[in-house]
Sequence to fold (144 residues):
Amino acid sequence: MKKSTINTILISVIALMSVSICFLIFCIATRPRYVIVSEPQTETAVITEMSGIAEDLQSETASAPVDVVDSAIDGTIPSDDMQGKTSTRVNIRNAASADAKVLDTVEGGTTFKILEIQDNGWTKIQYEETEAYISSDYVIRITE
Fold:
């Protein structure tokens, strides 16, 4: 092969990798954000998906204070009737660890009962009549 042919192939590979990296950065930058919207007269908080700026949401809800958080919730919160859904395709594990056994992988939007939101970044859920865990980064709290 000629030297110019090899150079052309290498430049093409580098260009393709650069485009792939730019696409991944775009995906990370546009991932869903979460907002806690709480009404002053109630003690419950609802986390909703946010793709814009917190001020836009605050103007829509007028009197409701808005706090932007990167993950679903920090701290341990016991729950009786808390429901949640997955923000994307996610692994359900048998323990609160990335090294724990994967019980199943579910699609985004899968709903479940939240048993406890732990301060270690994991959420304990009710999954097929047993306790399981999902990373809190992929949990959206919902109310019924």
